[in-house]
Amino acid sequence: MRVLLQDQLLNRDEVAIDIEDRGYQFGDGVYEVMRVYEGQLFTINEHLERLARSADQIRMKLPLRLDVLKERLIELVSENSVQNGAVYVQVSRGVSLRNHSFPGDKVTPVLIAYPLPGKKPAQEQQNGVQVNLVDDMRWLRCDIKSLNLLWNVMAKQEALDKGTYEALLHRDGTITEGSSTNFYAVKDGTVYTHPANNLILNGITRMKIIELCSENGIPFMEKELYINERTSFDEAFISSTTIEIVPVTKIEEDVIGEGKPGEVTKRLQELFRKITP
Ligand code: PDD
After folding, report:
1. Residues with CB under 6 A from ligand 1
2. CATH number of residue 78's parent domain
3. Residue 37 and residue 112: Cα distance in Å, rounded?
4. Do residues 23 and 153 both lie within one domain?
5. Which candidate in 29, 244, 260, 273 could, as Cys together with 23 as Cys, close a disulfide (CB 3.0–4.6 Å)?
């Protein structure tokens, strides 16, 4: 496998991460997961912009200019002959003696990127999934795509241990998002999702879904959804780069709508399929 380290493409065995890398020790860094369809990086500009924003929010300078990074990522996909899959990009604040304070300008952030297998969850996309509720105990800057994913990891494992597909996080009675997905409910034909504030990650798939709604006359509104109102949802679904759009047919033991993927969800899946190669 070929791996991007800073601006260089190397073989995997030529790349080593230092024991004092701050990403490793503090989760001090940011990341992106991008989708590759037919050899093309999907919504690459949006992902790069979000990476730059995340870095900016944690007061870290990316080690490469975005246009250079974009070129290298395209080369990475091509050198690894990725047809359908994903690319993981991570930037840590760099290598320095373990100390909570920032290491200063002389330390360069460390960027790595490499391909990940990315298979569509075809079965789940078609049949829908069950999710379970988990308290959202994350920090209050969930809008930053940071490497600190401990609660996301804990929540996801709890969901899997209970035999469900995803953890639906809730804070103060409102549904924020999934452990690695955004959440939506449909009521009387309108699609609702949590406002893009500090409590959720503004997903690139989410932004595409909003665009698709507005271009196709599907009513859409950013609004807080309450866990107590879940039985009144006609439909629900989750989205991310890796899973695209997956219908939610059950929240805990409560059946959503008719217990099968709803019409609005299916329409959005179809519209989404049309904008991917
Ligand atoms: N996760 N919310 C959270 C907490 C996420 O981690 C993700 C993505 C999303 C969806 O964002 P997008 O549509 O841009 O993928 C929402 C990635 C895929 C991951 O961590 O693997």
Report:
1. 33, 152, 177, 180-182, 201, 203-206, 239-242
2. 3.30.470.10
3. 21
4. no
5. 29
106 C-alpha vs ligand 1 centroid, how far in Å? 32
Whole-complex ipTM: 0.99
Q: 45 in helix, strand or coil?
A: helix
Domain span at 204: 122-275
Q: Three-class SS string for 88-106?
A: EEEEECCECCCCCCCCCCC
pTM for the complete prediction? 0.97
CATH of the domain at 166: 3.20.10.10
Shared-domain flag, residues 94 and 205: no
- Assess whether 106 and 162 both reside in one domain: no
Report the C-alpha gap between 243 and 245 in whole angstroms: 6
